[in-house]
Each structure stands twice: as C-alpha cells, then as structure tokens.
Amino acid sequence: MLDFDEILVSVKNPQIQKYLEESIKSYQIGNYRSAILAVWIATMFDLVKKFEVLVEQREPTAIEKWKSLEPKIADHQNWEQALIHAAKAVAMISRYEADTLESLSKTRNRYAHPSFDEGGTLFDPTPEEVRYFIRTLYDIVLSQPAQLGTFYVNQLLESLKAPTFFSNKLFGDKLTELKDHVVEKVTRINSKQVPRLIKELFKALSSPSNKEHELNVYCFLVNIWGAKSELQIPSDISSYWNDYILDRELNLRALEVILSYPECINELSEQAQQKVGIAFKDQILNQRRSSESAIKFLAAADIVPLAQSILNEASSLIPLDKILKQGWHYTYLFGDKFAPLFGKDILNETQRALKTRDWDQINRALSLLRECGIWDLANTLSPTEQASFANALIVSLTDNTWETMNLLGFTNRNEIPIRWVKLLLEQWSIQLDRDPRDRKGLPYYLEHYLSLVTRYIDELEDYAKLGKTVQIVAKIISEDSHASESVSKLESNETLWIFWQELLKKYCADQHNNPVGAD
Questions:
Q1: Which terminus of the chain is more solvent-facing, meaning fewer CB atoms within 10 Å of its CB: N or C?
Q2: How far, in Å, CA of 250 to CA of 59, rounded?
Q3: Strand, helix or coil at 227?
Q4: Rounded to 5 degrees, what angle do the CA atoms 279, 281, 287 make?
Q5: Is 186:197 a contact under the CB 8 Å cutoff?
Q6: 3-state helix, strand, coil in the chain (%, to 5)
Q7: DSSP 8-state secondary structure symbol assigned to residue 169
Q8: Would you call 114 exposed, middle or buried from its count of C-beta atoms within 10 A (0-12, 13-18, 19+)?
C-alpha cells in the first residue's frame, strides 16, 4: 500500500503539495478520474519549477531549452510533450522515464476527454491504475530534487584539471577533510548522472593532465567512495576501485588515497586486498614511511581484516634494530597497537642493554620501552627477573645514564607503581650494603633516591632501611666537599629540601657535626 502521508510530507512546494493532496483525497473517496488529473497537473507544474531552478543555476542546456519552452507554456501550445523532451535533454529524467511519462500522458488524455472502448462505454480508471499512476509520477518526478545533468558533469570534469579547483593545497593522506565539499557538489548532480561521473573520473586517472589534476580526481573518487551510503550510490564504485587497484602499481600517493576510508577496503576482492597489503608492507613498513591514512587504517584493525593481518605479521616483518633506531616513527604509525606488538621484545632488549652499561644502547632501548608502558611490561617478569631489572636500573642510574635518571626523577615519581618503588629502593639498599664503592655516588643521586622515598613513605608509611642510608649520606658529605656541594643543590627543590632536613634531624641528631642541609 502507498503511504500517502509520507508522500505529502516529502513534497515541499505548497502549490504542488495542494494538487497532490487533491489527487490523494479524490482517490480515497473513489473519484479516480479526478485523482489522475490532479496528480498529472502536480507533476507538470513540478517539472516547470525544476527547470526554473536549473536556469537560475546557469545550467546552459537548461537555459537553451527554456528559451523555446517558456513561450509554449505561456501560449498553451502542446507544452507538456515539449517539457518531457526538454527534461530528458537536460538529464533531469532518463530516456526510459521520459517514455514512461509519455505513456502516462496518453492515459491521462484518455481520462481527461471522452474516450470510448470497443463496446461504446467510457473508459473508467480502476483503483489499481490510479495507485500506479500516483506512485510512478512520484518516483520519477515528484520525489526528485532539481539537479544538474550532463553539461554540469562535463563542466565539473573539466574544472578538476585546474590546480586551484580546491582552495587549499591537497595532501594524499588528508583528502577526507574535503568530504563535505565533495558531497555538496555531487548532491547537485542528477542521480542518473553520478555513475557516469564516476566512470569518467576513473578514466581521467589513467591519463591526468598533471599531478594536481590527479590529486583532485582522487579527492572526488575517494570521498564519493567513503560517502556512498550518504549519497545512496550503488556498490559499483567499489568495483571500479577494485579494477583500478588490480590494473596498476600502487605508489605511495595511490595507497594513501585508497586507505582513506579503511572500512571501504572490505568491499574489495580478495585479490585486490592482497595487492593493497603488499603495497602497504613495501611503501609503509619497509621504507619506514607513515601517513595519516596509514595510521587510521591500522587503527581500524578491529573492523578491517586486512589491517589485522598486517599487524599480525608486523613483528616478523620489521627487525628489532629498525624499531630501536626509528622508534618515534613506529610508535606514531602503530599507535596503541605498538606496545602489544613490540613491547616484550623491547623489554628483553632493554634488559640486555642494561647489562652492557652502554649509555647509547640503554638510552635508546629504555626510551622506547617507556613508550610501551615500561612498568606493565616489567610486571610480566618473574620475581627474580623483576629484582634483577630493578637492580640494573639502579646501576644504570649511578652510571649517569640520562634516560634512567629521567625515568627515576622526582617529576616522574607518580608514574612508577608503588610495588616498583619498593623494589627499586630495596635493590638500592642492597647495592649500598654490598658495594661500598656505590656509597660515594649516592649523594649525587640523592634527589632520585628521596623522590622514591617520599612516594614510599606517603603510601606505605615507614621505610626501615631509610635511617641507615641517611647516615651513610651524612657521613660521606661530611668528608667530601664535592658530595656536600651536590647535596646543597637540593635547596632548589623546596619539597625535597624540607624532607632532607627532617631526615637529618630524625636520624643524625646525635652527630656532633651536622652535615650540609641541617638547620
């Protein structure tokens, strides 16, 4: 059944809506002849108004046709047939739809004038015939917006050759930013002309005038692909992309464009997806490139099987030494997928580097490990390995390794889980007891030590080994002027300076000569 209320609401012009409403009411009370006449008037009036819109939009073909059509309408000179032919000429309706309108015109004439059948009885429309009449005219004309046709498409295709077609400079991995612009232009085109536009755009890609022309065409095609549901475009565009991918080598620009809407990749054939995957490994992974569209593609792995497949292979495709040398690149490319993919290997490499006591190796590995979530990964180690790792960090700190000092610095204390704070302090205390040589280095790293202690005390109350350590430091700085000078620099950090003074009062009150920092 027809939903007459829905049809009436969709027609916005009040005059056209008036005639359409009259047709529907006539049908509902059984006045079928009047229903046909009223909906036909609404349709012809609608075509005239749409022609006027195209003329206002300066559509050349519409202007040309309107010059001969307007006088006929004014003089009532067989203008309905001329209007149907003109609408077909500007691609407002298709050839088939024009034939349908001409056929319905004959039906309308049969019921508008006295016409007799072979038995001499007047033709009388049936309810089914009236419903078909209203439904068909609504689908062909009344439900369609005034849209531009062939000439506009040709003009658009030519305009895309200009480097300045888009006001902003285009980049292959940021074309989606112009989606709204492209959608606005495509919605102005008669839906019957959009498939032709897509076909001609792909033809243009085979021999673009210049790089700017190629990028302009890419921008249109990929945004039409991404907005196909919004534009109500059939899936044929995916077939065009499929053929395009299979017919050419994919350079970085082409790959960036294709990856712009990751979910669209699922619509390609298996063979085309394989080719995209190979190009991604070559252009992005092997050549250490990255782009916004590549990042977006990998981030969509949950809904794009091809992206997930590439992630599954990534750790075997990229050597660890490349990851370490270009860590910033790969963390940017893989985003939150980086740590699950490479974190464990980087942790193992960091443990190995710590044993070498080589600053360069440690800094590089530890910096990347922090990007992966160092403490979450460290929690996966066995208790023995955790103690060893904590001890290695303390040794690295006393070796002046910059990344370790940054990791254990006062400003980072809240980033370290409390169980690791405790473990680090335990290992530091063990190290002091085990090797007296490390005691002399402690004053130089007192800020790091105290930052851990304050965190420990705040959350786990007292630290039993603190007193002994404070006494060791006090003794060293009373005997070593360089150590004393180093500790005095704590004054710039008010929180730690006050805390250090409190520790001296508590644990060194019985000493005759207070060390630097005492009141």
A1: N
A2: 38
A3: coil
A4: 100
A5: yes
A6: 75, 0, 25
A7: P
A8: exposed
**Chain segment 412-452, per-residue pLDDT in tens:** 666 788 889 888 888 888 877 777 666 767 777 788 888 88
Sign of CA dihedral 239, 240, 243, 249: negative
Q: How far apart are the first and last CA of the chain?
A: 95
Give residue 461's pLDDT band: very low, low, confident or very high (50, 70, 90): low
8 Å CB contact between 185 and 221:
no
Task: Provide the token pair at 249.
Answer: 């080598």
CB 369 within 8 A of CB 350: yes
Which residues have a Cβ under 8 Å from the Cβ of 196 and sit 6 or more positions away? Answer: 150, 153
- Any idea how long the chain is? 519
Alpha carbon of residue 514 to chain centroid: 63
Of residues 224 and 3, more confidently modeled: 224
Q: Which residue's entry shows tokens 């059948």? A: 117
Q: Return d(Cα 452, Cα 446) in angstroms, integer.
A: 10
Burial (0-12, 13-18, 19+ Cβ within 10 Å), 426: middle
- β-sheet bridge partners, residue 189: 148
Cα-based distances in Å from 209 to 212, 216, 247: 8, 11, 20
CB 193, CB 150: distance < 8 Å: yes
More confident position, 229 or 435: 229
CA nearest 323: which of 273, 285, 291, 283?
285
* CA-wise closest residue to 43 among 23, 66, 69: 23
Smallest CA-to-CA distance from 228 within 200, 197, 270 is with 197
Q: Which amino acid would we find at residue 131?
A: R
Residue with tokens 């590549």: 294
Joined together, the tokens standing for residue 348 give 């193992």
What sign results for the dihedral spanned by CA atoms 471, 474, 480, 486?
A: positive
Q: Rounded to the nearest 5°, which phi and psi values hold at 148? A: -85, 155
Residue 58: per-residue pLDDT: 73
Residues 6+ apart with CB under 8 A from 148: 54, 57, 59, 188, 189, 190, 193
Distance CA 77, CA 99 (A): 20
Structure tokens, 164: 């300045």
Q: C-alpha dihedral over 21, 22, 26, 29, to 10 degrees?
A: 60
Q: Centre a 10 Å sphere on the Cβ of residue 178 and count the other Cβ atoms it contains.
A: 18
Cβ atoms < 10 Å from Cβ of 180 = 11
CA pseudo-torsion sign 499, 504, 509, 512: negative
pLDDT tens, 76-124?
Answer: 878 999 999 988 887 778 788 899 999 999 888 888 766 555 555 566 7
Contact of 488 with 447, CB cutoff 8 Å: no
DSSP assignments along 191-209, one per residue: TTTHHHHHHHHHHHHHS-S
